[in-house]
Amino acid sequence: MEFGELVIVFLIVLIGAIVQGSTSMGFAITVAPILMLIKPEFVPVAVLMSGFTLSLYLMLRERKSIIIKGLGYSVIGRIFGAIIAALIMVIITQTYFALVFGFLIILAVFLSLYKGRWEITQPKLFIAGFLSGIMGTLASIGSPPMGLLYQHQEAKVIRGTLSAYFTLGTLISIVTLSWVGKVTLVEFKLYLIMLPAFTLGFWLSKYITKFLDKGYTRWAILGISSISAIFVITKTLLNM
Fold first, then answer.
1. pLDDT at 117 over 90
2. Which end of the chain is more exposed for a tag (fewer CB within 10 A), N or C?
């Protein structure tokens, strides 16, 4: 990558980590569409590795707010979803993967916009985990389905519980992708490139969370993600 691209990667990963550290989600949907445009090899493995580390950071910071009850159902759903997604990745070409990635980003944006209140039940936890497994493994963005269920809980409960789920969930996706040969030294090197930026962003999030205008930040992220996804889809279709 050129120096200018490295600067863009550092800044977008820094911003994504601040968002993740503040809300327990948002890193992947912030960084993945732009990283896909800069260097497709970032997605999904390097972003998943970064998301795993960030979730682990946050889980340790918010460990007193974790609610374990029910998480097992979402984790089981994640396993099934990750296996299906990994098998899909084996049979589709890079071109079709880019199209699937773009459409999953748009789906994630629509899910993030939903404001209804859903009761957290065991079947819904399983379904959310299953969808999260498919979206997370294919596009590295698995937070919207789980975010829908937990969006009306206390902020500290959301941060703690979802960070615990995403730590396990992203690890499941990484292991599953490794099983089908999608985790290589290239992805690990890209993860190391991202490591300083998301570590700094997470550290900063503790101090600047209260100053963030979450409304404007959220809309900006969803807008940029949508535009990037549309650009990925359009670029791919034109090159077919």
1. no
2. C
